[in-house]
Amino acid sequence: MLDDLIKSLDGDVGKQLTNLGIPSDKTSDVLSMATSALTDQFQQNAKSGDMSGMLNLFNGNQAIGSSSLVDGMVGNFASQIASKLGISPEIAKSAAAMLIPMLLSKLDSSTPSSGLTEDHLSQILGGEQSMGGITDALKGLFN
């Protein structure tokens, strides 16, 4: 689901990234890195036993724009973009600040009205195979 979402946004978001100063030949790399950044954040929170912040985002308990978790994701993603793609930190920060909340909002809009479930989280991250043990870490949250 997350990969499909990223692919569906490639054209429009690619143009927005280019307008922010990301070279057009690197926009696909930035979008691909966004998938990894979000998945890594889910996995990191699951491994530490702290999924409440992430679940609050998708269950309507906290606005995406006012989340310290999202702020941290934006900062980490901006650092990755700058270091791996050689993009200035300022441009990387602008791109991350636009892209991460946009992706989270799109994911949030696909969350069932009953709230985020283990199955839905698995779909977001591409199935249990790609989740790196996240399912086991989350079992207690959904029982």
UniProtKB/TrEMBL annotation:
Pfam families: DUF937. It comes from the Bacteria. InterPro entries: DUF937. This is DUF937 domain-containing protein. It comes from Fulvivirga sedimenti.
